[in-house]
């Protein structure tokens, strides 16, 4: 059943005549008759009772008329919704938990100023969740940790970001040029449960023969930053250049870094994704 057949049917039902309906639809009467015949064959029942030059709806035709009117109304509603989406699209962006909300907000704010009609819908998740959401079509683009095997046709690098020890500026470590892993032994430590390297830390600490004192654990990057600022502990975390009251101390025996970038689906014809990609590439990430 095609929409044009439904339109044919409703026009004939309204005008009570194949001839008048053909004139209104700007098609030939034979074409109109063929369309209705196919519709009746598909439904397996007669919809019209032919009477001279006019037609009447059969009981089945009367039932179908009500349903057909609903189908056309729903189609028009969908068309209107899609037109609205074209004018005011919603871009679903997946982001890692470990990307600072402050830095992300700066990007979103600047993007909104440039594209005020685009609504940004943010979805925070872990590395595998972002990939799953992208594959399942739950997000349109993801800001994530890029891996070597990622396809360059569906990903682009935004920035490289090293990780090192972040301490309160009042801590004695803040006055040192560098530290070693062994210096963390017994120190108050804030566990970043959102960190992409978190699963490797226990083995890393064990191999160094140390046991930092875990005083807090959090999946929220801003909470970790606030706790460090408050002097509650230290943490190995990405370097952000705009953090106040926090000092990053280089670690002589630890070298960690991550490549943060965008990923999207191939064959994705959503203009807002292209806008966001270009904007994110030109953004000053302050890292």
Secondary structure: elements and pairs:
Elements: H1 3-15, H2 18-25, H3 29-43, E1 48-51, E2 54-57, H4 59-87, E3 90-96, H5 101-114, E4 119-125, H6 127-135, E5 141-145, E6 155-168, E7 188-192, H7 201-207, E8 213-218, H8 221-229, E9 235-238, E10 246-249, E11 256-264, H9 271-282
Parallel strand pairs: 3-4, 3-5, 7-8
Antiparallel strand pairs: 1-2, 5-11, 6-9, 6-10, 6-11
Helix pairs in contact: 1-2, 1-3, 1-4, 2-3
Describe the sheet with the most strands: 7 strands, mixed
- How much is the average pLDDT? 91
**Beta-strand segment tally:** 11
CATH class designation of the largest domain:
Alpha Beta
Structural class category: alpha/beta
Give the topology string: H per helix, E per strand.
HHHEEHEHEHEEEHEHEEEH
**CATH fold name of the largest domain:** D-Maltodextrin-Binding Protein, domain 2
Beta-strand proportion: 15-25%
Number of domains: 3
Radius of gyration (Å): 31 Å
Number of helices: 9
In the CATH hierarchy, what is the superfamily of the largest domain? Answer: Periplasmic binding protein-like II
Overall outline: rod-shaped
CATH architecture of the largest domain: 3-Layer(aba) Sandwich
What would you say this structure looks like, in words?
This protein is of the alpha/beta class. The protein has three domains: 3-86, Arc Repressor Mutant, subunit A (Orthogonal Bundle); 90-159 and 260-282, Periplasmic binding protein-like II (D-Maltodextrin-Binding Protein, domain 2), CATH 3.40.190; 160-258, Periplasmic binding protein-like II (D-Maltodextrin-Binding Protein, domain 2). Helix content is 40%, strand content 24%. It is built from nine helices and eleven strands. The chain has helices at 3-15, 18-25, 29-43, 59-87, 101-114, 127-135, 201-207, 221-229, 271-282, and strands at 48-51, 54-57, 90-96, 119-125, 141-145, 155-168, 188-192, 213-218, 235-238, 246-249, 256-264. The strands form three sheets. Strands 3, 4, 5, 6, 9, 10 and 11 form a seven-stranded mixed beta sheet that branches. The chain has a two-stranded antiparallel sheet with strand order 1-2. Strands 7-8 form a two-stranded parallel sheet. β3 (90-96), α5 and β4 form a beta-alpha-beta unit. α1 (3-15) packs across α3 and α2 crosses α3 (29-43). The longest helix has 29 residues, at 59-87. The mean pLDDT is 91.
